[in-house]
Amino acid sequence: MSQVLVIESSARKQGSVSRELTAQFIAQWRAAHPGDTITVRDLAVDQVPHLDMDLLGGWMTPADQQSDAEKAALARSNTLTNELLAADVLVLAAPMYNFTIPSTLKSWLDHVLRAGVTFKYTDTGPQGLLTGKRAFVLTSRGGIYAGSSADHQEPYLRQALAFVGIHEVSFIHAEGLNLGGEFLEKGLNQAKSQLAQVA
């Protein structure tokens, strides 16, 4: 029995392709793994603030010296990090906004990439502490970017996940969605076809 953590980051509640892909993933995963637990965190509904002084203070200030704001920021970071620590499978739904990930997803990463918790520094450099997990990244893109220098999503997310020890990462891109006609249909169908093989 596995724990699956799904992170939604689309700002759109209706008409979102990344949410459509997530719904398909969850349905297929539940059918194939009925005993698994799936937790969905929707960053459009339960927004995570940007990295700020309160969070830095919560991480770095001794507990008995923390302000109320620092304690609240640390508690929020702990909640998000504990969800990730408990997960065996991570699913990131990431529409492309201005060539990269939504700022809401970046904020989530800023809360869970934590020295001494999800990675540590060693004499030979940083070492990820989340080994043994696997991740799926479901993207939606208006144009066609995979493999090009304009794709700042996949390289960044691969590096961020590898930094915490998650190296088994599969990307499923729905591309060309704003190009209309056959591009839209082809991009969506290819992504759904790949998804059908995941579970």
What labels describe this entry?
199 residues; alpha/beta; Rossmann fold; 5-stranded parallel β-sheet; two-stranded antiparallel ribbon; 6 helices; 7 strands; 21% strand; globular; FMN-dep_NADH:Q_OxRdtase_AzoR1
The whole-angstrom Rg is 18 Å
The total strand number stands at 7
Arithmetic mean pLDDT = 95
CATH level-two architecture: 3-Layer(aba) Sandwich
**Tally of DSSP helical segments:** 6
- Estimate nothing, just give the exact number of structural domains: 1
> Structural class given helices, strands, pairing?
alpha/beta
Task: Please render the helix and strand layout as text.
Blueprint: E1 3-8, H1 17-32, E2 37-42, H2 53-60, H3 68-86, E3 89-95, H4 103-112, E4 119-122, E5 125-128, E6 134-140, H5 154-163, E7 168-174, H6 181-196
Parallel strand pairs: 1-2, 1-3, 3-6, 6-7
Antiparallel strand pairs: 4-5
Helix pairs in contact: 1-6, 2-3
Report on this structure.
This protein has helices at residues 17-32, 53-60, 68-86, 103-112, 154-163, 181-196; strands at residues 3-8, 37-42, 89-95, 119-122, 125-128, 134-140, 168-174. The strands form two sheets. The protein has a five-stranded parallel beta sheet with strand order 2-1-3-6-7, with helices on both faces. The chain is built from six helices and seven strands, in the order βαβααβαβββαβα. With 199 residues, it is an alpha/beta fold. The chain is globular and about 60 Å long. The protein has one domain (3-196): Flavodoxin domain (Rossmann fold), CATH 3.40.50. Helix 1 (17-32) packs parallel to helix 6 (181-196) and helix 2 crosses helix 3 (68-86).
